[in-house]
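Hi support team,

I've been running sequence recovery on a batch of backbones for a student project. Most finish fine, but this one hangs at about 90% for roughly twenty minutes before it completes. I'm not sure whether the input is malformed or the queue is just slow. I've pasted the structure tokens below so you can try to reproduce it. Let me know if you need the job ID as well.

Thanks,
M.K.
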């Protein structure tokens, strides 16, 4: 039973703007211009956050003329969700068995 959660992926999503970007990209594929409109963030700031998301494997790019579109990779989210599900199951089992380390 796996009980560790990928802390690097959690750190990536811990930033409110990056989490907002992930929510937006879950609904549709968007270019930087759309994301600037939706978030109100500066283009350079947004590009930096998109780079972090891309390097972490959350998003992939699709060039389209002079624009770059970003698409969420659902498998990464599913993997992270699965890790949390396993962690919750471990906690549930621990609570049910009353397992406790003595001092």
């Amino acid at each position: 039973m796996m009980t560790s959660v990928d802390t690097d992926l959690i750190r990536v999503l811990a930033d409110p703007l990056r989490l907002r970007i992930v929510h937006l990209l879950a609904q549709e594929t968007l270019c930087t211009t759309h994301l600037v409109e939706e978030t109100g963030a500066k283009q350079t700031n947004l590009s930096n956050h998109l780079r972090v998301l891309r390097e972490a494997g959350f998003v992939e790019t699709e060039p389209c003329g002079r624009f770059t579109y970003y698409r969420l990779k659902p498998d990464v989210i599913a993997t992270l969700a699965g890790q949390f599900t396993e962690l919750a199951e471990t906690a549930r089992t621990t609570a049910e068995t009353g397992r406790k380390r003595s001092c």
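--
Follow-up from support: It reproduced on our side and the slowdown came from queue contention, not your input. The radius of gyration is 18 Å. No action needed from you.
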